[in-house]
Specification:
By secondary structure, the protein is α+β, with helices and mostly antiparallel strands.
């Protein structure tokens, strides 16, 4: 009995599944790097979860959701849960790129300027 069909099937499965895994982490698929802006508002919620953390900012009565990097990357960069939580209820400025799928008020965050003026990196540089 030859192993060729089993090897071929395994390779085919690997090829079919790899684009889905790669696309999950692709910034360009989900967000528009040409549609970025600075958004001012009050930080209302911090949600650190895998694979991405999120923050929520109330900007003129509208809640805007920002997807961040992974919690481990944020922690290494200094944007820890205590640092972010200490700014809840305070004015912040977030640099965000809009969602490509047309979902209103959903962004990928690259930086946040906290209420004390410090800047924390939250995601991809754009």
């Amino acid at each position: 009995m030859t192993r060729t069909p089993i090897i071929t099937a395994g390779l085919l499965c690997g090829l079919l599944l790899s684009p889905a895994a790669w696309a999950h982490h692709s910034f360009a698929v989900e967000f528009d790097a040409k549609n970025c802006s600075d958004i001012s508002g009050v930080l209302t919620k911090v949600d650190y979860q895998n694979p991405h953390a999120y923050i929520y900012v109330d900007a003129k009565g509208v809640t805007k959701t920002f997807q961040l990097s992974s919690p481990s990357n944020l922690k290494r960069g200094g944007a820890t849960v205590p640092v972010m939580n200490s700014n809840i209820g305070k004015e912040v400025v977030v640099r965000g790129c809009a969602s490509r799928n047309g979902e209103d008020n959903r962004y990928a965050a690259s930086f946040i300027k906290l209420s004390d003026g410090t800047i924390q990196r939250l995601g991809q540089d754009v």
